[in-house]
Amino acid sequence: MLYLPRKIKSLLAGFFMLTVSMLIYLLKYRKFHADESMKKGFEDHRSDIDTNGTEYAAIFERLLPAYNKAKQQQKNVDCVYQIGPLWQKMIEDQFTDLIEASSSSDTTKLRALLENFQREKFTFSSGGSAGDFHSLQNNRLYKYQFINGWYKYYDIYNDLCNDHPELTYPLYGNPAGLYYNGQVIPTEAIRYHYYATEIQSLLRDVDNPVICEIGGGLGGQAYKVISSLNKPATYILLDIPEMLIVSSYFLLAALPNKKILLYGENTCNSTEFSQYDVVLLPHFMLNQMQNESVDLFFNSNSLSEMTCDTAQEYIRQIERICRKYFMHINHNVKFAWRENGNEATNMRATDMIPDPKKFKRIYQHLRAFSKIDDKIFYYRKKAKHFTFLYEKMRPSE
Q1: Which of 194, 234, 295, 330 has CB atoms 3.0–4.6 Å from 349's, for a disulfide?
Q2: Is it true that domain 6-41+54-392 has CATH number 3.40.50.150?
C-alpha cells in the first residue's frame, strides 16, 4: 500500500471535494443562476433594516443586565452546570470581543458586534452563516460547495414536506446566504423551517404549548417556531450566557410584537412563563423548572458536546420536566478531555435514552440535514449523526 504523509492526504481530499463540488454545481445548479444569487446574498445587509427607533435602541438596555446577572450567578452553580471543556475552549478562542464589550458595558461596541453577529467569529460554531462567510472570504472556490449544500438542504426539505416551501428569514445580524425569492436565506434557515414544521405537527392538538430548547444557539429555531405558529405558545430557550446575549438580541429585534422575558426581569418564575411568547434563560436554570411543565424538549448538537455527567443531568431533568415529547439530534463521535489531571468523556447520541419506564421511542433515524464537510468528519470518526423522538407515556390507571 502506498504511504502518503497526512498533509498530502489532506490536500488530495480537499482537491477531490472541490472537484466534486464544481461538477455538481455545473451539472445541476448553474441553471438556477445560483452564482448571482449567492453574490447578492453575501452582500452587507445592515443598511436594509431600520435601527433608528427607540424600541430598537431599548434592546441593548435589556441585554447587559441579563448577561451580567447570568455571569454572576454562574459562578455558584453545581459542577454539572459548569461550561464543559469543548465549549470553554470555543469561548476562549472565539468570544473575546463579545465578552469584552459585554463585561465593560460598552454598548457601542456590543451593538456593532450584534448587528453583524451572523458574520462574526463568535458564531462559527453556532449554526449561523459566519462559517460560510469566512470560508468564501478565504477561498473563492468555496461558492460551489456552499451552493450545492444550500440546494441539497432545500431538496431535502421539499422531499420531506412534499411541498415547495416559502422560505423567510430576518436580516438582523447581517446573515449571509442565497438570495431566494427576494429573501436572504442562510443554509441553516432551511433546517429551522423543517423542524418548526415537525414541532408544530407534534403539538397541533395542544393548546398553549410550551417548547423548551436546550442550547438554542443564535435563536433561529425559536424564531421560526414562534413566528409561524398560529396559536399562543411559549418558547423557552436555555443556553450559556455568551450565546444567550446573541439569541436575546436576535429574537428581541426580529420579534418586536412578541412578549419576551430575559433573565432577571420580573421573577423568572416558571409558573408565570405562559404569559410570555419567548423566555430566555441561562442553562443552569433547567433544574429550577417545574415538573411536567414543558410539552416538547428540543436539542440539536449540544448534548453530545457536554461531558457525560452533564448530559446525564440534563436527561434526568428532561425526564422530570417533560410532559409529552423529547426530540434531539446528536452524534456518536466519542471525545475525551483531560483537565486538572482528570479525564472526562462525552455521551454518544445512542446512549441518550430517557427512562424507558416513562418514555417510549417513536423513531431513530440518520440526521437529514448535513453538509459534505460534516459527512467527511463523521466518516473519518466512524460515527453517525442521528435524530431521535421520544414520547412520555401516561401512567397506567
Answers
A1: 330
A2: yes
